[in-house]
Specification:
Elements: H1 32-48, H2 57-64, H3 68-79, H4 83-101, H5 105-111, H6 117-127, H7 132-136, E1 143-151, E2 154-160, E3 165-171, H8 174-184, E4 190-193, H9 199-209, H10 226-235, E5 244-245, H11 246-252, H12 259-267, E6 280-281, H13 294-311
Helix pairs in contact: 1-2, 1-3, 1-4, 2-3, 4-5, 11-12
Length: 312
């Protein structure tokens, strides 16, 4: 019987990955974590070899010796994202590295394994928050407007692009809040104050600080990984006045082992209040961390519980 040649990248180099032997019925007892790690390693090697992607679910399933259905389920259960989302996140990360090196859009696109520049531009507005050409210049060209308002927790800073909210902060001093905003977007073309233009955002967020349930959906313009987006979507489902533990959020998104990653996603939430990361507690029921201070986290939770009781 003729042996199959190892898969090759578009540049003709052998793929640096082991070929898995299909699992027998006994092998089907392998844990979901083992299958997911094997699949993730295959995707990582494929991206590293600059192979045009994404890898198909059928190809991954053959490599891991399980059915496509089981692979999809086990991968998502372990890593919190689908194989396609994992592949796409790696390629986007490679694209970012190429753009930052100054490779140029065409070269960075090729190196990341994208088949066409049109697909990159479709993805970039979500993953980068801007076009690849703009990202290559460190975000130069972005116009950001902000507003600052006093609130029950000190000062509220709200910043937005034309697409939606990009930053929400809590603090005590206007100067410190503006400085933080400038550090977050060092290459923005402009950062200007416009309390009138952002008035409706500020009004809605002040309501939420007082414990009121969201009245309006707020458009967002943030950068987040596929996993972070899953976490943020779950946080938005937590009813006002209720809390969840990091473990409960991890379970809800289908990744019960990703408790620490859920905590990291909450810690990196760029739009406080708009995405209610303050509603997530440690597994023992204690407050845990909060970027804007434990006292503010407690105050937000207490205000929401009081408002929910009044409404009920």
């Amino acid at each position: 019987m003729q042996m199959k040649k190892p898969p090759r990248s578009p540049r003709g180099k052998p793929m640096q990955t082991a070929i898995a032997t299909p699992m027998s019925s006994k092998g089907a007892t392998a844990s979901a974590a083992v299958v997911a790690r094997r699949a993730a390693a295959y995707i990582e090697n494929r991206v590293a070899e600059e192979a045009e992607g994404p890898v198909t679910l059928e190809e991954l399933a053959r490599h891991c010796g399980v059915s496509p259905w089981h692979l999809q389920r086990q991968f998502k259960q372990t890593l919190g994202v689908s194989p396609r989302q994992y592949d796409d996140a790696l390629r986007m990360k490679q694209l970012k590295r190429g753009l930052k090196r100054g490779d140029g859009v065409a070269a960075a696109t090729f190196e990341a394994g994208y088949g066409s520049s049109s697909r990159v531009y479709e993805r970039a507005m979500t993953a980068l928050g801007m076009t690849p050409a703009s990202y290559a210049k460190g975000g130069k060209g972005a116009a950001i407007f902000y507003a600052i308002s006093p609130c029950g927790l000190g000062k509220l800073l709200v910043a937005a692009t034309a697409r939606g909210l990009c930053r929400v902060e809590l603090g005590m001093e206007d100067g410190a809040l503006i400085e933080d905003l400038s550090r977050e977007f060092p290459e923005a073309e402009s950062i200007e104050r416009d309390d009138t233009a952002l008035g409706r955002y500020v009004t809605e967020l002040l309501r939420r600080i007082d414990g009121a349930a969201p009245r309006n959906d707020l458009p967002l313009d943030i950068q987040a990984t596929a996993f972070q987006r899953r976490v943020y979507e779950e946080l938005l489902r937590i009813p006002t006045g209720e809390t969840r533990s990091y473990a409960e959020v991890a379970e809800a998104i289908g990744s019960p082992a990703a408790v620490r990653a859920v905590g990291n996603a909450c810690a990196n939430n760029p739009v406080a209040l708009a995405i209610p990361c303050h509603r997530v507690l440690r597994n023992d029921g204690t407050l845990g961390g909060y970027a804007w201070g434990i006292e503010r986290k407690q105050a937000l939770i207490s205000a929401e519980r009081r408002a929910a009781r009044r409404a009920g």
